[in-house]
Amino acid sequence: MTILEIVLSILLPPAAVFLRKGAGKDFIISLLVTLLLFWIGGIIHAFWLLSKKE
Predict the structure, then answer these.
(1) Cα–Cα dist 31/33, whole Å
(2) DSSP structure string for 26-53
(3) Domain count, the chain
(4) Which domain holds residue 44?
(5) Phi-psi region of 29 (alpha: psi -120 to 50; beta: other; left: phi over 0)
(6) CA 7 vs CA 12, 19, 47: distances in Å
(7) If you average pLDDT over residues 1-27, what whole number do you get?
(8) Which end of the chain is less crowded, N or C, counting CB atoms within 10 A of the terminal residue's CB?
């Protein structure tokens, strides 16, 4: 992960996922998790998703 992805994962989790994965299912899931689980869920999901090896 780059510094930009780490900062975006904390401030705007869906934006970090969008930069790495695009506007697919991962972005939609990140957006829903962020909205429904009060930001902390979005941060956890973004870090988990971005730290996975592709």
Answers:
(1) 6
(2) HHHHHHHHHHHTTTHHHHHHHHHHHHS-
(3) 1
(4) 20-54
(5) alpha
(6) 8, 12, 10
(7) 91
(8) C
